[in-house]
C-alpha cells in the first residue's frame, strides 16, 4: 500500500511539476515511455552538470576569490603623518679614525707595506668602515685588513661616525629654525650610520629579542610645536605646555592618530609643514676616497614605523646645489569585511595576521628585509652589520663581505624558503602589502646652484672651507586621496546569480523547491491515513452455504486509497 501511495504522489507531482522534464521521467502518461525517459534523463543530467560547473564559479567568487570594489574619497592631509626622512652623508667616518685617502696614499708609497705601521685600532676602524663604502682603493684596503677578526663592527661604525653638528648646518620647520640635533636621531642603515627625523623609536619598531645597542636612544620630544622666532632663533624646548615630554606612540598605520591634537608624534602632514635642511661637509672631506654614494647626500623617505631599508626609494642631492622636493601622499585601506577572506585572496595582511621575528609592526618593507636577512644568514652563517639580528646571530666580518653581497643580490630569486615566527617552521616569505598603507610620491624640482649669500643667511658659523647643500620638502595640497577596497560581490549578488543559473538550467525557482517539499510532506501525510482491509477470496457457493446474503449486483467498498469489488469468483482487491 505504501508503494502505491508513493506512486500516486509521484504521478500527482509529475502532472504539476514546474521543473522542466520531470513529468517525462517519473510520470505514468504516454509521454513517459522508455525512449522519452532516456532522452530526458540525459538532458536532465547535462543540465545538472552545467548548473554545478557555473554554480561552483559563482560560489568561489563569493566565498574564496572576492570581487573587490574600489572607492576613492578625500581626507584631510593632517590625518596622516609627515614621512620619516633619513639623510645619509657621503662621508660617515671621521678622518682621524678611518682616513681612506691617507691610507691609499701611504699604501701606494710603501708598495703595500703600510699595514705594519697601522695601529690595531686603525686597522679595526678601516676594516669596519670599508663594509659601508665602495672606494676605489677598497681592494687594497681589503687585502691589508683581511686578517682582522674584529666582530663588533656596528660599535666601530658608531664610534667613527660624524655627529649632527659636523654634518648639518641648520634645520627649519614651519618657518622656524631650530638645532638639528633636536630633530635628528642616528640610525644604522645599509650605508653605515645616517640621521633620521620623525621616525618612531626602536623600542616601538623592533621586538624585544632584537639587539638595540646599535641604535641611539631616540628623542621623545615632538617637533610639531610652533616656535617663537622673535624670542630666539633656535628654540631648545620640545616639550608640551606643562613641560612633559610627549608620547612617542600616538599613531599607528591601522588606527591612525589616537588624538586630535596638533602637538603629536609623529608630526602631522600639513601643507605649511615645509621642512628645510642645510647640510655641510668640509671641502677636504669631499675628496675622501670612501664616499658611500658619490659627492652628495642620499635622501630616503619611509613610514614613521619603518626603518630605512634597501627596498625604499632613494634620492640624491649634490654638493653646492639646492633641491625642492614636493610630496604627494595616498592612503590605502581595506574594509573590515575583507577579513573573512584569506590574505592570498585579498592580497594583503591586516594588523596582527602576520608576525615577524624582528619587527613589531608588519609592513612589506620589513617583511622583505627580514627575509633577506634570513637568506643571508642561511648562505653565509652571518648577517651584514645593518641587518636586524638577535644575540645568537653573528655579524659578518670582512672575509664574508663578498658572501653577503652575493646573497643580497640573489635574493629573492633563490629564496624558496625562509624561517619565520619562532624560527622552527619553514615557510615561503610571501611578503604581501599591508591592508592599511600610505604611499609617498616625491616630485623632484630642477636642481639649482645654491646661492650661498641668500640661502645660507640663517646658517651659523659659516666657513669658506665647507661645501653646502640645501633640501626643502613640502606637500602640495591640503588633502589626500584615500582608496578603500570593499567586497563588491555580496550575499545578495550570490543569491541572484545562483537563482539565475537555476532558472537557466533547470527552469525552476525557490517556489519549485517549495513544491517538491510540499509533495513529500503530502505523501507522508497520506501514508498515515491509509486503512488496510484484508479480504479473503471466498467462492460464492460457500458464502451462500454459510448463510451470507449477497446481492447479485456488483458493489464497491471504498476506502481512502483502495477499491474492492465483487466478481463472479468472489472478492478481491483491484487496487
From TrEMBL:
InterPro entries named in the record: ENaC
Gene Ontology MF terms in the entry: ligand-gated sodium channel activity
Segments forming a coiled coil: none
Keywords annotated in UniProt: Ion channel, Ion transport, Membrane, Sodium, Sodium channel, Sodium transport, Transmembrane, Transmembrane helix, Transport
A matching Pfam family: ASC
Major location (coarse): membrane
Membrane topology value: Multi-pass membrane protein
Subcellular location: Membrane
A cellular component term, taken from the record's GO annotations: plasma membrane
Sequence intervals crossing the membrane: 38-56, 498-518
Signal peptide (from-to): none
Family label: Belongs to the amiloride-sensitive sodium channel (TC 1.A.6) family.
Protein name, entry field: Uncharacterized protein
Organism: Chironomus riparius
Amino acid at each position: 500500500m505504501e508503494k502505491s501511495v508513493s506512486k500516486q504522489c509521484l504521478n500527482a507531482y509529475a502532472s504539476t511539476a514546474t521543473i522542466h522534464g520531470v513529468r517525462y521521467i517519473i510520470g505514468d502518461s504516454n509521454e513517459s515511455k522508455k525512449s522519452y525517459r532516456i532522452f530526458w534523463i540525459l538532458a536532465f543530467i547535462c543540465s545538472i552538470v552545467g548548473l554545478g560547473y557555473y554554480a561552483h564559479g559563482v560560489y568561489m567568487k563569493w566565498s574564496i576569490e572576492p570581487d573587490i570594489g574600489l572607492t576613492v574619497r578625500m581626507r584631510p592631509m593632517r590625518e596622516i603623518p609627515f614621512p620619516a626622512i633619513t639623510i645619509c652623508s657621503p662621508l660617515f667616518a671621521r678622518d682621524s679614525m678611518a682616513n681612506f685617502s691617507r691610507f691609499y696614499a701611504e699604501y701606494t708609497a710603501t708598495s703595500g707595506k703600510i699595514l705594519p705601521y697601522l695601529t690595531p685600532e686603525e686597522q679595526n676602524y678601516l676594516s669596519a668602515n670599508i663594509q659601508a663604502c665602495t672606494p676605489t682603493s677598497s681592494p687594497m684596503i681589503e687585502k691589508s685588513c683581511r686578517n682582522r677578526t674584529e666582530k663588533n663592527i656596528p660599535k666601530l661604525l658608531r664610534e667613527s661616525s660624524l655627529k649632527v653638528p659636523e654634518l648639518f648646518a641648520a634645520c627649519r620647520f614651519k618657518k622656524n629654525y631650530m638645532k638639528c640635533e633636536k630633530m635628528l636621531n642616528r640610525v644604522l642603515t645599509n650605508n653605515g650610520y645616517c640621521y633620521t627625523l620623525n621616525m618612531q623609536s626602536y623600542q616601538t619598531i623592533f621586538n624585544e629579542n632584537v639587539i638595540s645597542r646599535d641604535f641611539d636612544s631616540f628623542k621623545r620630544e615632538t617637533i610639531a610645536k610652533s616656535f617663537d622666532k622673535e624670542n630666539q632663533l633656535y628654540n631648545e624646548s620640545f616639550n608640551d605646555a606643562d613641560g612633559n615630554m610627549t608620547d612617542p606612540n600616538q599613531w599607528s598605520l591601522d588606527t591612525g592618530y589616537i588624538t586630535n591634537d596638533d602637538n603629536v608624534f609623529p608630526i602631522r602632514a600639513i601643507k605649511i609643514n615645509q621642512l628645510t635642511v642645510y647640510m655641510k661637509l668640509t671641502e677636504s672631506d669631499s675628496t675622501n676616497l670612501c664616499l658611500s654614494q658619490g659627492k652628495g647626500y642620499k635622501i630616503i623617505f619611509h613610514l614613521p614605523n619603518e626603518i630605512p631599508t634597501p627596498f625604499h626609494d632613494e634620492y640624491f642631492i649634490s654638493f653646492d646645489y639646492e633641491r625642492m622636493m614636493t610630496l604627494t601622499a595616498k592612503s590605502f585601506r581595506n574594509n573590515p569585511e575583507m577579513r573573512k577572506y584569506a590574505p592570498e585572496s585579498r592580497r594583503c595582511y591586516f594588523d596582527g595576521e602576520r608576525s615577524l621575528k624582528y619587527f613589531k609592526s608588519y609592513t612589506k618593507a620589513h617583511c622583505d628585509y627580514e627575509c633577506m636577512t634570513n637568506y643571508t644568514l642561511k648562505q653565509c652563517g652571518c648577517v651584514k652589520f645593518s641587518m636586524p639580528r638577535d644575540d645568537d646571530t653573528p655579524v659578518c666580518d670582512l672575509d664574508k663581505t663578498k658572501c653577503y653581497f652575493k646573497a643580497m643580490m640573489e635574493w629573492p630569486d633563490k629564496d624558496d624558503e625562509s624561517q619565520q615566527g619562532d624560527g622552527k617552521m619553514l615557510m615561503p616569505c610571501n611578503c604581501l602589502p599591508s591592508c592599511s598603507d600610505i604611499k609617498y610620491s616625491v616630485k623632484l624640482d630642477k636642481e639649482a646652484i645654491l646661492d650661498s649669500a641668500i640661502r645660507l643667511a640663517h646658517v651659523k658659523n659659516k666657513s669658506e672651507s665647507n661645501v653646502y647643500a640645501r633640501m626643502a620638502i613640502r606637500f602640495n595640497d591640503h588633502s589626500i586621496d584615500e582608496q578603500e577596497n570593499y567586497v563588491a560581490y555580496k550575499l545578495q549578488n550570490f543569491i541572484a546569480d545562483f537563482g539565475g543559473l537555476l532558472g537557466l538550467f533547470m527552469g525552476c525557482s525557490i517556489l519549485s523547491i517549495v513544491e517538491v517539499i510540499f509533495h513529500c510532506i503530502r505523501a507522508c501525510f497520506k501514508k498515515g491515513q491509509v486503512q488496510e482491509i484484508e479480504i479473503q477470496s471466498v467462492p460464492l457457493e460457500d458464502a451462500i452455504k454459510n448463510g451470507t446474503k449477497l446481492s447479485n449486483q456488483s458493489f464497491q467498498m471504498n476506502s481512502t486509497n483502495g477499491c474492492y469489488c465483487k466478481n463472479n469468483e468472489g472478492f478481491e482487491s483491484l487496487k
